[in-house]
Design brief:
Elements (H helix, E strand, L loop, with lengths): L4 E8 L2 E8 L2 E9 L2 H11 L4 E2 L4 H14 L18 H10 L8 E2 H7 L7 H9 L12 E2 L13 H11 L14
Parallel strand pairs: 1-4, 5-6
Antiparallel strand pairs: 1-2, 2-3
Helix pairs in contact: 3-5, 4-5
């Protein structure tokens, strides 16, 4: 059944990651965690009844790219097929904007809000969109920083340390002064 949710776990240099899809579109991505059971529980919490399956070629290509990314290879996911369902309209705008950020390119929550012609107080809503991003790495929420370039929060396994490691892979300096956790 082509429209049933499916998923696959895969090993990266940073741990065990997961990808979920329906048809040919990615609907969920789980950044690497240290253990397979944690990753599998996390992906299945969004896909009750999903079946683990061999991915179609387009999904397998994204898995291969993610593996290379965590090995430090410059990889972009601009063309990865994604279906996000129906996020709130502002969140959809945030996801579309953030998806255009390339390797090593960072911005801030406030700058994203301004780019979308929103008022400065919408920076918090940008942060909420990033915290609920269903396909991190593909929509590179790790490239969105807090005010002043601080790392800010990160809801993926490993929290802000994982965000810092991903940015470091991309050549973005993340010294101790940047690892504040404020917004």
């Amino acid at each position: 059944m082509a429209d049933q949710s499916q998923y696959q776990l895969f090993e990266t240099a940073a741990g065990i990651a997961a990808i979920g899809w329906t048809g040919g579109d990615i609907t969920r991505f789980r950044l690497p965690a240290p253990a397979t059971p944690e990753t599998e529980r996390a992906i299945l919490s969004h896909f009750p009844g999903a079946k683990r399956a061999e991915p179609p070629a387009t999904i397998a290509a994204v898995i291969a790219a993610a593996i290379r990314y965590f090995e430090g290879e410059r990889v972009e996911f601009f063309e990865a097929p994604v279906a996000l369902g129906e996020p709130p309209p502002f969140f959809a705008q945030v996801y579309d904007h953030v998806r255009t950020l390339g390797w090593g390119e960072t911005t801030t929550y406030g700058a994203v809000a301004r780019a979308l012609d929103a008022r400065p107080e919408h920076a918090r809503a940008v942060g909420q969109a990033m915290a609920t991003n269903p396909v991190p790495l593909i929509i590179p929420c790790h490239r969105v920083l807090a005010a002043g370039g601080a790392i800010g929060g990160f809801s993926a396994p490993g929290g802000s340390q994982s965000k810092a490691r991903m940015l470091e892979l991309e050549g973005v300096a993340t010294g101790p002064a940047q690892r504040r956790f404020d917004f």
